[in-house]
Amino acid sequence: MLTCLKFVVLLLLLSSRSCDGLQFNDIDEEVELVAQSSRYGSLWPLPQKVQLSDVSFKLTTSSFRIVDAKESSAGPSCKHLTFLNFSCHCVIFSTSTFVLWATSFEGNECDAFRDQPTRLETFSQLVYKDEFGTKNINQTTISDFPRFAHRGILLDSSRHFLPIKVILANLETMAMNKFNVFHWHIVDDQSFPYLSRTFPQLSQKGAYHPYTHVYTPADVKMVIEFARLRGIRVVPEYDTPGHTQSWGKGQADLLTPCYAGSKPSGAFGPVNPILNTTYDFMTQFFKEISTVFPDAYIHLGGDEVDFTCWKSNPDIQKFMEQQGFGQDYSKLESFYIQKLLNIVSTTNKGYMIWQEVFDNGVKLKPDTVVHVWIGGATDEEMHKVTGAGYTTILSAPWYLDYISYGQDWQKYYKVEPLSFNGTEEQKKLVIGGEACLWGEYVDATNLTPRLWPRASAVAERLWSAKDVTDISDAFNRLSAHRCRMVERDIPAEPLFSSYCPHEYKGV
Ligand SMILES: *[C@@H]1O[C@H](CO)[C@@H](O)[C@H](O)[C@H]1NC(C)=O
Ligand SMILES: *[C@@H]1O[C@H](CO)[C@@H](O)[C@H](O)[C@H]1NC(C)=O
Ligand SMILES: *[C@@H]1O[C@H](CO)[C@@H](O)[C@H](O)[C@H]1NC(C)=O
Ligand SMILES: *[C@@H]1O[C@H](CO)[C@@H](O)[C@H](O)[C@H]1NC(C)=O
């Protein structure tokens, strides 16, 4: 996957003298009052190689056109340029030529279109307005590819329902930051907003509201297509056997009845791992999920299973005895997960799982992606998971639902995903990471400002070269990048005392 994401963008401007008359100075001086200007302009995340020049060109319809280089394997698609506010049809070649040159795809196994949005994003970041409001671009040569293939954002639509509009706006912002995986933590204990065709009662009973707080098949399709057009994969997470309280409301006997003494207490625990009906349900459910979501991976969760309820249940105790598990309930968890993984394998999907599943010694398919999230001994865990030969993604240092006073983006920025002790082979197994925005204290009112531009710090760490670590240059570019988001009507919160040329106007 890493190889097919590689690309090269060469921005080449050829022009007559008549084009470079206008300079970008007044606005620049004002901006310096709040942030220094970087020699890399407002590029974010920083490309692998970039050479900016002082030769500037007016980006006007009379002097500019976009052409496909002969070498290009995927020509620019006009509709992706509409955010620059000129249409391809009226861009006429006269005095200058802009060549967007895409090449260096290693292998044809993936959709060449996938990287197109990131190239166009770089192009748009080079465009700036002069004092008359005319769009300019400087002659620039860029050679670029992402350091890590998996650059994700996790959103949680269970703790709070997230309206589709918010999800789409977030996908747009992800594209601006070159994230390419939307990890949709779609259901959890609190609610089940996913409307299943096979088991409609799951959302009918388990959503906060059966009609207003659900994702219909059409909604899900829209999210997937909107993401695809921006080069973003959608990986859904259906977390079991814990985190499933909402599932139990619409699916009788799925959860384990907890006992108080010798009688059921009326409460329910994790998925009941000892019933055949549980596996019949999972087979049908994941058959549906595997057709609804086209991505090659499904996230199966597997984190934070509370054993208290299993321990209280006499039928479970008996089963433990029969299986020879003793009092080790993690063996029961593994028994369940193993059967689930076998079920999902028959759908021809790969799976991602939270680190506990690996820690508990469950037998995993070799292509399993282990998601490391527990802080504290993260380096040790990365060492262990990659040492066992599994592909890994990192989230532990990037839990953006935690907030604090000050510039905490720097903390996220300073993370080095490969800092753990390991061989070259082990490090190659780390395919990237995800910033997680858990939803306990997040809904549509605060999602965007809480996530952006803090997640932008993670975006650069996962995209740019390892040695891109200069905090003050990052601050300068990120300030400008944040203002660009604001100019595009995205309420990204400020980094520090400052102003933007175009402030957010609210709605
Ligand atoms: C673009 O070129 C102008 C001169 O035409 C120069 O003042 C400015 O610094 C350049 N911008 C960048 C980001 O290199
Ligand atoms: C796009 O260009 C048109 C015509 O030049 C102008 O009226 C409009 O305000 C521009 N829109 C934006 C978002 O810059
Ligand atoms: C559950 O399935 C197993 C294996 O297919 C079978 O041996 C067992 O009898 C089934 N149990 C019940 C209660 O149907
Ligand atoms: C790193 O891992 C290797 C192999 O597991 C081990 O021999 C070595 O002592 C470790 N080094 C550190 C600094 O932990």
From TrEMBL:
Keyword flag Disulfide bond: yes
Domain Glycoside hydrolase family 20 catalytic stretches: 148-465
Claim: Lipid biosynthesis is one of the keywords in the record: no
Signal sequence interval, chain numbering: 1-21
Pfam family, one: Glyco_hydro_20
Top class in the EC scheme: hydrolase
Gene Ontology process terms (BP): carbohydrate metabolic process; ganglioside catabolic process; glycosaminoglycan metabolic process
Keywords for this protein: Cytoplasmic vesicle, Disulfide bond, Glycoprotein, Glycosidase, Hydrolase, Lipid metabolism, Lysosome, Signal
Function: Hydrolyzes the non-reducing end N-acetyl-D-hexosamine and/or sulfated N-acetyl-D-hexosamine of glycoconjugates, such as the oligosaccharide moieties from proteins and neutral glycolipids, or from certain mucopolysaccharides. The isozyme B does not hydrolyze each of these substrates, however hydrolyzes efficiently neutral oligosaccharide. Only the isozyme A is responsible for the degradation of GM2 gangliosides in the presence of GM2A. During fertilization is responsible, at least in part, for the zona block to polyspermy.
Family: Belongs to the glycosyl hydrolase 20 family.
Oligomeric and partner information: There are 3 forms of beta-hexosaminidase: hexosaminidase A is a heterodimer composed of one subunit alpha and one subunit beta (chain A and B); hexosaminidase B is a homodimer of two beta subunits (two chains A and B); hexosaminidase S is a homodimer of two alpha subunits. The composition of the dimer (isozyme A versus isozyme S) has a significant effect on the substrate specificity of the alpha subunit active site.
Record's protein name: Beta-hexosaminidase
Organism: Sphaeramia orbicularis
Protein encoded by which gene: hexb
